[in-house]
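We give its fold:
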Amino acid sequence: MSKPFAGVRILDFTRYLAGPYGTYQLALLGADVVKIESREGDETRAQPVATELAARGMPPAFLAVNGNKRSITLDLRRPEAVEVVRRLVRNADVVWENFRPGVMDRLGLGYEALTRVNPRLIYCAVSGFGHTGPERTTAAFDGKLQAMSGIMSITGEPAGGPMRAGFAICDTIGGLTAALAVSSALYQRTRTGVGQFVDVAMLDAALAFLPGPVSEWTVAGIEQRQIGNGSVSRKPTANRFRAKESFLVLAVLTEPQWVRLMTALGLPEALDDPRFKDWASRTANFPALREVIERALASADARTWEARLTKADVPCSSIWKIDEIVGHPQLEHRDVLQTVDSQFGPLKLVGSGFRLEHGSPSLDRPPPLLGEHTAEILGEAGYAPAEIEDLRARKVV
């Protein structure tokens, strides 16, 4: 059975991470994603990590979110390149870009211009603040949005000050939100036959991923603060604890889990200790509770305790590093990391976060070299070989 978006063509003008991450999700699901790059390429191609790959314009950050795509180069400052886009749009389902509002309009490639060419077109614009509002033209990157959205204000320990997440969380949230929005628009079009403008603001998306902290303030007036390694549940046994030469994170949130934890730690007496009789008492006496738990954990390393407690059905985990978790049997069983052959050898990359019984997302072709498919895509748009060579000679492509 074919994948869900087989037959859908996306013209992908995005670069960096938020845009490409979103289009990658649909590429994994079968969409034909045509990555339209400048002659210099997506800025991510120049990231100076992994020297050998970076020298080829294929560093890990680019490889991570551009599999299953085809690449064509166009100098969009040239009228001939704009005409190429207009011809491609005739048979496209989606145009997806993450420029600042107004940039595509100035190129003659905005929503209004392109829907005159293809009324069924879905046009997705991803930006920091969206295409409306007082901040619409303000530049925004992940760090700014982590700081502005409230994410940093609740991350880290109070003594250390606000802290960023360890990855570009606002970029990936924005990309995932865009993928959902475009999927929704495509589904709606199957019933209405009408395309539309999809306006994705990364700040909006970040807030949408913080429903609990936001509602605690807006509904109950509870001021948010950094909670370090604590849980949003406020349960004291959902926290990080020190084991022998390492750390263990417990996620003990229910009374049965509490009983199983104390039993597995060899602390049955704690179940009768009045300081720990209920969640309110455990919270009020958390320093003492931490001491009791960490004294027991000190007898073994965190990975050993993880195995013991998991066997006892106590939710917990040691701290896995990236290089460790990618080889976990669970991920291997789920085929989360998929290997695709390329001219540089096999590439092991992260695929999708879900599986379907029919037409599951998969990584089927390697990320493209810059402009690798230019002639192929122009040919599909009706350009003759001589015309393609002329465009190359004049550096339009």
Notes: The longest helix spans residues 169-192.
